[in-house]
Amino acid sequence: MTAQLSPIDKAKYVAARRAVEFVEDGMRVGLGTGSTAAWMVRCLGELIRDEGMKITGVATSTRTAKLAAEVGIPVKTLDEVRWLDLTIDGADEYDPNLNLIKGGGGALLQEKIVATASDQMIVIADLSKQVDTLGAYPLPVEVIPFGWQTTKALIEEMLSNLDVMGRNSSLRLNGTDPFRTDEGNFILDLHLRRIGNPTQLSLVLNQIPGVVENGLFLDICDVLVIGNADGTVEVRDINNGTVEHERIDINDTENLFVETGE
Ligand code: 5RP
């Protein structure tokens, strides 16, 4: 079945397959959002179905919760579980220190809460997400709808004092309407091109009234699994300082899936 996958989906799939090897019986697992994370959710469903693995999932979005239910993962809320053993999620960008931009799918708030409530965060990605310096991908910032244009103006004014290359922002749309997050908020995408000091930017952004959270995930990711279309993966562990290369067998996925729905 994986023979029908595009090269990019193969890369995402093998990253997901390798990442679920970190999951052990009985674990409470944060389930990320996005097309790469959707592969991971389906791989976990396969482990439950075929190997009888018992896990509890905490979803980071309504669409991940729906997919998890479809593939047979028991899902609880974070309030029911309180703390997680690990979270596996995708990313829009990662830098050499495994700092991330997330929120391309609009789920950054729940994703950050869930990842922060986890002993370990494992990020799954392909090489297209790799950058030397964060910022080429527009930085998503979740803002409350009330007074969003004032919040946008305040953000743009604040950016003029920070080490970034671009200062424009745009309201994310869903058709002609504003995109709404699961919490009913809006997303502003900041077109910064280069973020010189992500820590400073994150702190300053979150001090602006109206900003709920930003998509910089700094010092949160422990392990990065990079998948390649040829079936190889690279596993970078920031805590151990190790980098390992492996090959994933992708021929044993007869009962798996074609469409990720993402
Ligand atoms: C959703 C996210 C995703 O993890 C990120 O957008 C990557 O998505 P994909 O795996 O589809 O490229 O942060 O809010």
From TrEMBL:
Homodimer. The active site is at residue 111. InterPro entries: NagB/RpiA_transferase-like, Ribose-5P_isomerase, Ribose5P_isomerase_typA_subgr, Ribose5P_isomerase_type_A. Belongs to the ribose 5-phosphate isomerase family. It catalyses: aldehydo-D-ribose 5-phosphate = D-ribulose 5-phosphate. This is Ribose-5-phosphate isomerase A. Keywords: Isomerase. Its EC number is 5.3.1.6. Pfam families: Rib_5-P_isom_A (PF06026). Gene3D superfamilies: 3.30.70.260, 3.40.50.1360. The keyword Isomerase applies. Substrate binds at residues 33-36, 89-92, 102-105, 129. HAMAP family: Rib_5P_isom_A. It comes from the Bacteria. GO terms for molecular function: ribose-5-phosphate isomerase activity. Pathway: Carbohydrate degradation; pentose phosphate pathway; D-ribose 5-phosphate from D-ribulose 5-phosphate (non-oxidative stage): step 1/1. Catalyzes the reversible conversion of ribose-5-phosphate to ribulose 5-phosphate. GO terms for biological process: pentose-phosphate shunt, non-oxidative branch. It comes from Roseicyclus persicicus.
